[in-house]
Input
Amino acid sequence: MDKGTYNLIINLPSDKFLQIGKLGRFLFEKGYYVYTGSAKRGLDARISRHKRKEKALHWHIDYLLEDAVIIDVKVYAEGLLSECELNQKVFKMEGAEVLAHGFGASDCKCKSHLAYFRKLPYSIP
Output
């Protein structure tokens, strides 16, 4: 698949203060995160890049992934849901919280594209 939307399901094993590029410094609590992203081309390459530990820090998610681990990836074909529609579904899930306002959402009106969960969510949209 060359384009579409995706969710990264991430575990952060301990509380951590992180500087997220120019966005600011945030306390990321121990637990699980669901990051919503998209690629207009090169979707597989984008996800592979997220999984690599050695990379230049470019996107907000890159800073979190220095200390966190991707435990699962959900990929959705282009046209099913836009990145923001998928993100809205994630934030409707029980327990979803925003810890870093503006994270991954610099080009839209969403409050964040990173949802925090104290416990691993049972199912991702």
